[in-house]
Specification:
Helix content: 10-25%
Radius of gyration: 18 Å
Order of helices and strands: HEEEEHEEEEEEH
Distance between the termini: 19 Å
Length: 167
């Protein structure tokens, strides 16, 4: 059954197994001392995606402190102003401030947010990150997203089975 004309909010209510294969998208920066760096994922996202997990890993020396911002973009940002102009990938996540918000990491701190099932209209853009090292210690920072595309069709038996249950 073709569901390509369904609104994203309706598609997101479908069971997880109808979303197909999941894949990783990542960006990584290496910082030596107090510095800033940017990265963009190699492959653009499909037009619409589902984000299933967000993971962040830092490899830092003792006392290093990193601030990271995550956004959608078409080109690698070259400075903080260009990063601020990009669309945040996770609205409201991070320290209060202007668009993409800062996520602060101290020492060796990793996090993973699972079971997100978050529908995002990416318009074919890519994952962009900005990391700022506020200490004199070297650091590497990686952002990993587990994503899938949004289904455009589902098995016809699923639609007929659900119609039977609702009547």
């Amino acid at each position: 059954m073709n569901i390509s004309d369904w609104p994203l909010s309706s598609i997101m209510q479908l069971p997880d197994y109808l979303f197909g294969r999941r894949f990783l998208v990542s960006a990584q920066v290496t910082l030596s001392g107090q510095s800033s760096a940017w990265d963009i994922s190699e492959v653009p996202f499909p037009e619409n995606i589902v984000i299933w997990e967000l993971s962040s890993y830092s490899s830092v020396s003792n006392f290093a402190r990193i601030q990271c911002r995550i956004a959608l973009g078409d080109q690698l940002p070259a400075n903080a102003a260009q990063m601020a102009a990009l669309e945040p990938l996770f609205n409201g996540f991070g320290a209060t401030g202007i668009g993409p918000r800062e996520i602060n990491h101290k020492y060796i701190q990793n996090f993973c947010m699972r079971r997100l099932k978050m529908g995002v209209r990416t318009a074919g853009r890519r994952l962009c990150i900005e990391c700022v090292n506020t200490s004199e210690y070297a650091a590497t920072y990686t952002v990993l997203l587990t994503v899938s595309s949004v289904p455009k069709d589902i098995p016809s038996w699923f639609g007929s089975d659900n119609r039977k249950r609702s009547s």
